[in-house]
Amino acid sequence: MTEAADGGDPEREAIEGETLASIFARIEAAASGGPECADQFEAALLDLDREIAPKARARAAKDADADLAEARKDAQARPGPESVDKLRKALLRWRRAHGIADSSRIPAATDVAVHVAAVGPLAHVATGLPTLDRATRGGLLAARMHMVGGEPDAGKTGFVVQLALFWARSGYAVVMHCADEPRESILDRLGQAFGLALEDLEARKPPAMRFLAERLAEIPQLLLVDQRLDGMSVQQSASELDRLAVRLPDCLGKIFVADSLQTARAWAPDARPREKRERVEAAVAALADIAAAGPLVIATSELARSAYRAKKTADRTREIAAFKETGDIEYAITTGLVLTAEKGERDVVRVGVAKNKRGLYLPFRLRRDLDRCTYEDLGATAEEETPEPAAQKVASSRPQGPAQPKFAQRAREALVKHGPIGWESWILAIGGNKTQARDAARWLREQGETRWKADGQRGRLYMWHDPAVAEGDQR
Per-residue pLDDT tens for 171-205? Predict the structure, then answer.
């Protein structure tokens, strides 16, 4: 192995250090300049991100190497389906990190067309809600993943329970993976839908429980899996869905319901990711794999607090970016619905359409019967009933700038809390992406609240909050 491959090329390191030092100097100079230096300031930050991107890719490749080595050892020490699946996923991450594609696995376009024609038309699964079925051109697409988000007590779980019951009664094999609420709670909701009083269900009165058992016996298409009691991951629940579909005569299709994304387990018991974000990303990937095998997959998701707590609509996170923990959700789903309670109307829920590929962006309202745990379609809201225009879609996909008081305050608080902080560390501290970090830095600079300093010897750029300016603003 060469010296350069070992990362010990002093000439190259000197060039990289000189480049970073030059960028740092430009940022420091522009930061202390007037309004006319704003464009130079932002351009220098862009150059900084471009310079550190290769290093980030190198770190990702190094992490992938370590994950692959660990997966190999695990497969040798504990051979079995779970360790093999872990090894397969680690190998895929390693290939992506190193930019390696397996061309032998990529079919020709003509072969893909023949395969698609043989599979048949895309199936739309009606939901029993006329407005939603109209917005989705006949119902949610099978073999796709869909998401129902909402603020606390907006009725996410009750909504998907109603869908699951409707689909099971229609002839679909339905498995509901209960990870948020226990199976008993879901049974109570079903009992309410059958007309039983919640008080009788909670008291476990024999007549009510017998009636519930009789009604459930009429729909063997519905299976409830309790993640904790049954000890099953979403992948194992999906296997139960396959078995259920085989047992049912004249099964129309398979549907997998997960409640919720943030609590669903998609890993081996001894391989639990340490970070919550990683756990949610694992669940997203697992559910996407289940959908790719044919079933319609629908899951509930919590929303970030910034999506519903801000008093002003302009300060709220956009619906498509509001699903909690990871942006992977946005890219994995075909349809994304967001439930929010209407102010002053406890029994009315607004359903926003955050994403709807090939369909209408058609917000609508539901009337919720809390006693029956059911939802009645009240029709579309007064908003425009058209697909999202391309220009609007591009504009809405741009990150929201720090002109929003909530984001600006969060950026300010990160500087106050951490004191002098490096550029990359600050991006992580504010919880945004690079574009948002640049916007925030520019906004704080224009307010005169930041000071910048380049450390050429260590190759770092530091920024910190100026308390004198903050005190002046408060006065």
Answer: 999 999 999 999 999 999 999 999 999 999 999 99
CATH of 121-396, one of 3.40.50.300, 1.10.287.950, 2.60.40.420, 3.40.50.720: 3.40.50.300
Count CB neighbours of 153 within 10 A.
Answer: 9
- Taken in order 286, 287, 290, 292, the sign of the CA dihedral is negative
User: HSE of 312 in the Cβ direction (CA atoms, 13 Å)?
Assistant: 6
Burial per residue of 191-230, b for 16 or more beta-carbon CB atoms within 10 angstroms, e otherwise: bbbbebebebbeeeeeebbebbeebbeebebbbbbbbeee
The CA distance from 345 to 219, in Å, is 34
Q: Give, to the nearest 10 degrees, the angle between helix 405-418 and helix 434-446.
A: 90
Q: What is the spatial distance between Cα 399 and Cα 327, in angstroms, rounded to a whole number?
A: 12
405-474 CATH fold: Arc Repressor Mutant, subunit A (1.10.10)
DSSP for residue 365: E
Total H helices, total E strands in the chain: 18, 14
Both tokens assigned to 86 = 């872990």
Peptide bond into 260 cis (omega under 30): yes
> Which tens digit of pLDDT belongs to each residue from 50-85?
766 666 667 778 888 888 888 888 877 777 767 777
Q: What is the DSSP string of 50-79?
A: HHHHHHHHHHHHHHHHHHHHHHHHHHHHS-
